Amino acid sequence: MDETGSDVDTTDTADAGQDELTVEVGGDEYEVTENYDYDQDGENDSAVVQTEDGYMAFHDTDGDGTADTMVELDADGNVTGAAEYDEASGEWTAADPNSVEAPSGGGADDAGTDTTTGDDPTQTTETTTDTGSGEGMTVDTAEGEMEVGPAQYDSDGDGTNDTAVVTDEQGNTYAFVDTDADGEADEAVVIEADGDVTVAQHTAEDEWTTVETGHINADGSYTSDSASDAAWQG
């Protein structure tokens, strides 16, 4: 396992904290540096390391300093798998990439962090993240409403999950964002298997308007190619 993550683009997180994250594998512990800001809140929360086939992104979702979820990506940045760490058995088990919890906040930065409540500084409570209502999100399409499951990711870093991610049989990934918390998707990001990216907004019934196109580079970074107001019929 390459613990340097040297080929991963982390230029936008250079001053966002570089905490060490513990990864336990087969009874051995590895210390890797959080070098990527997954939820784009200004604080590094993930340790991305390079492998022979692409990358592995380790996340500490409960703020205890030890990685508990991992997402695998190929050289083009496409998600190829995921795993969750079972503290009881000390083993990593395969998981559905759409079901693993995404990191938020400061990752290992939050380890042992308490928040004072009320006027008594001795009264503390652990910091928690609102994971939403758990109800399924719907997407308006020409064929009617499509159910994509509950929001599992917090895309804007406000503490509430607002994004549902699904992958089809062709390897295309769809991220649907509910910006107004009404249970219906307002924005969509489509990452095709070849790395092409389309960003669209829901602008009318059965209609989605493309606002940007781009592509995922070999190092996993994103480059915008163009903007468009062409309507995409969902």
Descriptive keywords:
234 residues; mainly beta; 5-stranded antiparallel beta sheet; 18 strands; globular; disordered N terminus; disordered C terminus
Element layout with pairings:
Layout: E1 20-25, E2 28-33, E3 46-50, E4 54-59, E5 69-74, E6 79-86, E7 91-95, E8 114-116, E9 124-126, E10 136-141, E11 144-150, E12 163-167, E13 173-177, E14 187-191, E15 196-204, E16 207-216, E17 222-226, E18 231-233
Antiparallel strand pairs: 1-2, 3-4, 4-5, 5-6, 6-7, 8-9, 10-11, 12-13, 13-14, 14-15, 15-16, 16-17, 16-18
SSE pattern, N- to C-terminal: EEEEEEEEEEEEEEEEEE
Q: Total number of β-strand segments? A: 18
- Indicate the mean pLDDT: 74
Q: What's the helix count? A: 0
Beta content comes to: 35-45%
Rg over CA atoms, rounded to whole Å, is 19 Å
Uncertain segments of ≥5 residues (pLDDT<50)? 1-18, 109-133, 227-234
Outline the structure in words.
This protein has 234 residues and is mainly beta. 0% of the residues lie in helices and 44% in strands. It has no helices and 18 strands. It has strands at residues 20-25, 28-33, 46-50, 54-59, 69-74, 79-86, 91-95, 114-116, 124-126, 136-141, 144-150, 163-167, 173-177, 187-191, 196-204, 207-216, 222-226, 231-233. Strands 12, 13, 14, 15, 16, 17 and 18 form a seven-stranded antiparallel β-sheet that branches. It has a five-stranded antiparallel β-sheet with strand order 3-4-5-6-7, with no helix packed on it. Strands 1-2 form a two-stranded antiparallel sheet.
